[in-house]
Amino acid sequence: MYFSSRVIASISPTMNFSSFHLTGFSGLEQQYPWISIPFSAIYAMVLLGNCMVLHVIRTEPSLHQPMFYFLAMLALTDLCMGLSTVHTVLGTLWGLSQEVSLDACIAQSYFIHGLSFMESSVLLAMAFDRYIAICHPLRYSSILTNDKIIKIGVAIVCRSTLLIPPVIVRLKFLNYCHPHILSHSFCLHQDLLRLACSDIRFNSYYALMLVICTLLLDAVLILFSYVMILKSVLAIASQEERRKSFQTCISHICAVLVFYIPIIGLTMVHRFGKHLSPMVHVLMGNIYILFPPLMNPIIYSVKTQQIRSRMLRLFSLKIH
């Protein structure tokens, strides 16, 4: 149990049956004002960084290319992820509210998981973009037309939003007989299932199927695309050309690692880390939510020359 019996007793009598208690860093409640400072800075960087990437791509005609359209989708997804959790995470740390209604919790869970699937889909689309650019450069502009990109974007949105409702909506009809204390300062599907005493087999099996058909399938396809890219690059005679080809993939590879490593870590902690300190669960949850949206704008600003030069120009104009 994450809280002492004294805390549970103080919560349960006053808490509505359909309300849940969000968990910050248990045992460090007195330090919340200090802990909130880095978290506030991280959220500010997430919002500012992704907004700047979107602004640069929108206002710079030379960046109106498939690669940067997909990057804009990634930045928009990361921005929405930050917006979907900022009110509960900072609300908990600032002491504004640690209770969330069941309906609000289910809605936040839908957005968090939907945006995770969306980010995975965008990363797969970006891998496809790199595969076409390197393995079929002469057909790149004919394959990735604006119409194709719009269709890919619509498919990503539909895949990320229409597959989740059956498992998320059912959370509304479960009985929650365990103490209504969540493991994180935001709501996750598996966290709500842990508190339910109803039959959760449908949710468990359907969620597993979703993970296999989205996150796992995307990871396999991304890996396969890079096997094909590597095979194509190694066939290039010029070492300089090889280096340039690999250089165009560095940012995407970093973004893939930044996304999948926290997911794997959080899954391992939830499955096999029940004996670990609650602090580990809270820390891994926050890394899963915040690390990709924080790092992606930094990665693409540093590693992508076109974005970096536009960012520097934007800052120089603001200074002058």
TrEMBL record:
Keyword terms of this UniProt record: Cell membrane, G-protein coupled receptor, Membrane, Olfaction, Receptor, Sensory transduction, Transducer, Transmembrane, Transmembrane helix
Membrane topology: Multi-pass membrane protein
Protein name: Olfactory receptor
PROSITE patterns: G_PROTEIN_RECEP_F1_1, G_PROTEIN_RECEP_F1_2
Bilayer-crossing regions: 34-56, 68-90, 110-128, 149-169, 205-229, 250-270, 282-302
Compartments where located: Cell membrane; Membrane
Family: Belongs to the G-protein coupled receptor 1 family.
Pfam families per the UniProt record, alphabetical: 7tm_4
First-listed, main subcellular location of the protein, grouped into a coarse class: membrane
The organism of origin for this protein: Myotis myotis (Greater mouse-eared bat)
